[in-house]
Amino acid sequence: MPNPSNHGSLTLVGTGITMIAHLTNEAHAWISKADQTFYLVMHPLADQWIHKLNPHAESLAHFYQADLPREQVYHAMVAHIWAAVEAGKRVCVAFYGHPSVFVTPTSDLVQRGQREGVTVHVLPGISAEACLFADLALDPGLHGYQSYEASDFLLRPRRFDPTTPLVLWQIGVIGYFKVVHAGLDPRAGLARLVAHLQHFYPEQHEVIIYQAAILPIEEPTICHVQLNALAEQHVSAYATLYVPAHGEAEFDQTLAREFGLL
């Protein structure tokens, strides 16, 4: 039976999407003051910046080896991080974006903490979703919002509503579950996605390829294309697809009168 009194502590933070600009004061403090800080970021300048905050910080990027299944990589990361916790250290792990959004090690670490009686603190960060809401002026409170990882959207066909905006994440790696590399060709996956979406939207329906800015001097990628042209577009592994609503949702006139809206 694990003895949590012998363990250190673990706090997971997010660095946000845009380097430096999105880091919260709370995350800054944990990265700087932890006995051991691990991190995963998206740009070499972010590496340098993390090391200025904590000279002993260690990147987890070396776990990403070509052709390894991502699940194997995440398992190795979790074991490495937990070893520092078991050594009695106050550990901080800084993940790009929000630590609970598309970060498999976070859920694995939280579950391990629950099994071993160690509280794992997760602090929020600015996510790609938050950036999308701002950059595309999308308010999910107006007409709702549907969000799925693109491969999962195809593997588990959903009963989604075309009259509500749809967001699909990671459209550049559809059907690919190993370590991402620069030579990936997204066209086959995009073609599968287009074929599925065309059952619900017209071929000329305009969609948006989106990617948030990583550096403060950059602009976000916002590319408007017709659905039938999506498969031929050059997209990164981290690109997102925003599909605007097609048509209008039914409106319950009787209930609207009860609510005093009519």
TrEMBL record:
Highest classification ranks of the organism: Bacteria, Bacillati, Chloroflexota, Chloroflexia, Herpetosiphonales
SUPFAM superfamilies xref list: Tetrapyrrole methylase (SSF53790)
Domain of life from the UniProt record: Bacteria
The protein's name in its UniProt record: Tetrapyrrole methylase domain-containing protein
Tetrapyrrole methylase domain span: 10-213
Organism for this UniProt entry: Herpetosiphon geysericola
Molecular function terms from GO: methyltransferase activity
Record-linked CDD domains: OphMA_like (cd19916)
